[in-house]
């Protein structure tokens, strides 16, 4: 294991970010438990980034665990597998964790209680597989980014050849408060995570693996260092604890010193980042042939009786998770899927866990600290907090004045919506909401503009076509006329000639 | 559980706007108490009148513009404006001067622009400056510091506050005013400085505005604000540098005509300006580079006005002038966006291995 330390100067110069109360305990200190099987599992068809999956089962079908429920549709998508053995009882709309609060399409499964695996084809030495084979198996196992973005992982693996990736970053920062599922995972399955990460390394063709872990997780750092010890290409790096350290671009900058260009992808600088949970899923899929059907979820918040990390089948409803943690001890002010900084607030406890669900929080009013927004006092806390170097207060002022274009000019497009600005705002201004609204509005305007442009193009093309037809018609007329005239003239000349021949002299 | 879906983040830092105002008031307390101690009951009455007048003006404006009065008043910004205004007035100023200044500060400088967060100019400084320009006699009537015990009682204080008549026995001159007059008369600085500053001057034992005289206590309060992360170091340091550097150069070149930097720093409203006036969130830039320019500019202007201007003190004018530049600084001196050059173009893609080698 190569020993790498973040240079102090880089630590000193990076002055972005906030330090929210971590509140990771008691969940972080307790071994993870199996959540068991709920009475029914709701597997959302669009729990991955990109296109929704296309169902391949019918209502009434009996499936074994790991059986394909839905296949990937389109270039960016991922297949879904049965989280346990049971019967498909419905395919249709179900409540989902989406900011809009609207339901989404899902496959509902009633477990038969046997939890019987279907056929699993693993490989005793998956590291000997070819990069294409690894990417193919990862794709077939339905693995997506498990840090929350849920981007299909196989696509990031096959980037390697095109973009010449030289560094893989394993993201163990887990900078969101409350969440400790990655922390537990690194403590409990460090060796498997490192194996999975080495498979990712092989698939991308990169030559070094940097594991970044925030310094508030010393046990995880130790476990990962021990697991990484035999491999010279792997380095476990201690990072300062700061939100949003887990953001891909900030992570790359902290670990490598490279600042990925705005608007580009991390692959442009030869780096690709994966979550530790993803690495574990990759290992399980290749070594044991298990598709992604369960994940570790942190159940926490002041309203939860005994917060814990649970091994949860994809599709388990939130209410089941709370029940496994001793239930709720008070009425929560807010239910959140994900972390408190970027998670989605939900209002329904029947919402199912997805592949990207890292945490489920039931927060008390005191934790949420909700207050009515007051006037901006221009204190500049948001400017200091912004990891991207934006001026959130100025952007909000422009958006308030409905000058969205001007907000875009000063960097609205670079916003990560990490929520650091809204977190520190002493006036409680919902800055992230402003930015999300403005971006949505700009996208809508862009679509409208494109549609108008298309209509204009079509209209112009039609006008041109009509004009061309008219012109061609006129030209043809003219040509015909000319031909007729020429023919008549030739006839007249011939006649004249004939007459002169008939009457010589 | 309600059905409203909330936007992230679902956690908030604990500090609120009114807490910030409260911390600033707490930081002002030592210097204010020292002012009361040195200038007696009239100073306390003036402070009270300013705060009450500011809060009342704010309440009337809010009521008038049809906004909710109590939630906005409770943010404490009006009271803080009154407090700062009181600290910048002569300690024995008459009551009507205080009320007039408060009205200018709250109505003209703050509410006309749209209330908290919308004003371009520092309200307290607008109040003080209008008074200074309109009532130069009352605004430069300094009293020599007296300890509370040997000074005035409350009844006497009220009569002074009502009439504005300062008994001649108590009047005195501030250091800057004295030096300006003496230099104007052609007397060298060394002679002019003789006997102006008694021992303990930096703890407030000298003539000047209510809250500006005890420079060290202001520094203490400012340090508290910096430690509490209410203000940054950029504006205070920049202000002091902008004031002291030219003063040091000028003093080194002509010691008899220019005050030394320490005298500049510790007299007049310089410390109060550096830590409490120029650092006003609303009217100062919010990005680092802009803050430096703002602060150095304010310090430099203070020195220029003190040295060559018609008024002996220039902190108020300097801060107001730089306030006018703040919107421009905020637009022009924005921080660099991550992954972009200063001009806003995307950075070139640098490879990892190249940087390692």
Q: Identify the biggest protein-protein contact and residues per side.
A: A-B, 78 and 48 residues
CATH topology of the domain at 1-30 and 122-289 in chain A: Rossmann fold
Alpha-beta content class of chain A: alpha/beta
Oligomeric state as shown: heterodimer
- Tell how many strands the DSSP assignment of chain A holds: 17
Query: Rounded to an integer, what's the Rg of chain A over CA atoms?
Result: 31 Å
Number of helices of chain A: 16
The unreliable regions of chain B are none
Q: What spatial order of strands do you see in the largest sheet of chain A?
A: 1-14-13-17-15-16
Q: How would you describe what is shown here?
A:
The complex is a heterodimer of chains A (505) and B (357). Chain A is of the alpha/beta class. Chain A has helices spanning 8-13, 131-140, 153-157, 159-163, 181-188, 190-204, 218-228, 248-256, 276-288, 318-324, 365-368, 381-385, 392-400, 404-409, 420-424, 431-502; strands spanning 33-34, 41-44, 54-55, 62-63, 68-71, 80-81, 86-94, 104-111, 167-172, 208-214, 234-239, 271-275, 294-300, 308-313, 334-337, 344-346, 359-363. Among the domains of chain A are: 1-30 and 122-289, 3-Layer(aba) Sandwich (Rossmann fold), CATH 3.40.50; 371-505, no CATH class. A 6-stranded mixed β-sheet of chain A has the order 1-14-13-17-15-16, with helices on both faces. Chain A has a 4-stranded antiparallel β-sheet with strand order 2-8-7-4, with no helix packed on it. Chain A has a 4-stranded parallel β-sheet with strand order 11-10-9-12, with helices on both faces. The N and C termini of chain A lie far apart (119 Å). With 357 residues, chain B is mainly α. Chain B has one domain (19-332). Chain B has helices at residues 17-39, 41-64, 69-73, 77-87, 95-111, 123-134, 136-139, 154-163, 175-184, 189-192, 215-227, 234-253, 261-266, 270-277, 288-308, 315-332, 352-356, and strands at 142-143, 171-172. Chain B has a two-stranded antiparallel ribbon with strand order 1-2. Chain B starts with 16 loop residues before the first helix and ends with a helix. At the A-B interface, helix 8, strand 15, strand 16, helix 15 and helix 16 of A face helix 1 and helix 17 of B.
